[in-house]
Amino acid sequence: MDPRLHIIDKRLQDIKRIIAVSGGKGGTGKSSVASVLALTLAKNGYRTGLLDLDFGGPSAHIILGVEGLFPEEDKGLIPPDVSGIRFMSIIYFTGNNPAPLRGKEISNAIIELLAVTLWGELDFLIIDMPPGMADTTLDVIRLIRRMEFILVTTPSRLAIEVAKRELAVLQELHLPVLGLIENMLTTRQYTGVADKAAGRQVTSLGSIDFDSTLEHAIGNVDKLLQTKFAKQLSSYHPLK
Amino acid sequence: MHEWALAESVITTVVDEIRLNNIRKVTKVDVMVGELQQIDLEIFRFALENVMKTYELSLESKAIRIAIEKNILRCEVCGKIWSFGDAGCRLGEDEAEAIHFIPEIAHVYIRCPECSSPDFEIVKGRGVWIKTIEGER
Ligand SMILES: [Zn+2]
């Protein structure tokens, strides 16, 4: 018996909605969507948490400009407040060092983090998911029940193919998919993948234009919220 | 894992077992803890006592037996088998604390003493598990 599995449900019990931001292919802007979505929710007065489970390439802390923080220890770990978000990431433990972990170990580390984190009461917990549909993702799906998914893709055919496959897996597992966001759009590239997905009984959350100012806003929360990216995302997100 | 989280997870497991199997009195709980979790047994015992109260579980504290499993690490590259705590495997306080919370962090700070690879398997000495729960119906 692994007692850690017993505690995870309890750790998440006071969270109203858990939203996983996923996007099979790397480089679709999944972490930016997750981070800015969390920021927007917090700004709108929702009690919001952000959990970076992309242990292979954690980046939410870079987007949010997190530095020199460590969770407070009180019968578990309390995620530090980052611009109104309770933020948890493996980087508190790894520092800037790479974490060369195999799949099973990533799952183990995720279990450990979920078992020890005290979120308290939240309206939303946003999760920056591990990439792809491999073991780690399936473990996370198994461990954190009642997750709802947002898929992020780009107009690239490669990204779309991966997103479609991921969508198929999620639907087969009967997991709620809130919708698909087509990110980094240029007018010429418009593929309407979100609309096509809507045809498959998945809500289209719409598209977000490629925003060259986003890169310069990374690490600065105020600037991030001023970007067109943030504005478009806040009008599309499914919580309105 | 942190001692308190660990204690709470053990107690919730026992409580679930009691309910599931209609156990009237729990007589023995065998808990195994991997050495890499680096728990402080005194704090763990203290946490168990306290968590028990909040779950209204009355269990003699000596009924809970805790055993530590020694760690064995094996390099995936050269096959070297060693143990954290061997000479040359000393860590700073921050590193030790990070491993205490998440044992896999060992891969960030520990290297194979033979070939310096971070790609090693934690063969033994990680995790927490309950070996047996015994009780009277
Ligand atoms: Zn080696």
Could you characterize what this model shows?
The complex is a heterodimer of chains A (240) and B (137). By secondary structure, chain A is an alpha/beta fold. In chain A, 40% of the residues lie in helices and 22% in strands. Chain A contains eleven helices and ten strands. Chain A has helices at residues 3-11, 30-43, 60-64, 91-94, 103-116, 135-143, 157-172, 193-199, 214-217, 221-226, 228-236, and strands at 15-22, 48-52, 72-73, 77-78, 81-82, 85-89, 122-128, 147-153, 177-185, 204-209. In chain A, the strands form two sheets. Chain A has an eight-stranded mixed β-sheet, with helices on both faces. Chain A has a two-stranded antiparallel sheet with strand order 3-4. Chain A is globular, with a radius of gyration of 17 Å. By secondary structure, chain B is of the alpha+beta class. Chain B contains four helices and six strands, in the order H-E-H-E-E-E-H-H-E-E. Chain B has helices spanning 3-21, 41-54, 93-101, 106-109; strands at 25-34, 64-69, 72-75, 81-82, 120-124, 128-136. In chain B, strands 2-1-6 form a three-stranded mixed β-sheet, covered by helices on one side. In chain B, strands 4-3-5 form a three-stranded antiparallel β-sheet, with no helix packed on it. In chain B, a hairpin with a 5-residue loop joins strand 3 (72-75) and strand 4 (81-82). The longest helix of chain B is centred in the N-terminal third of the chain and has 19 residues, at 3-21. Chain B is elongated. Classes of the chains: A alpha/beta (240), B alpha+beta (137). Chains A and B meet through helix 1, helix 4 and helix 5 of A and helix 1, helix 4 and strand 6 of B. The structure holds zinc ion (ZN). Zinc ion is lined by residues 75, 77-78, 80, 112, 114-115, 117 of chain B. Zinc ion binds at residues 75, 77-78, 80, 112, 114-115, 117 of chain B.
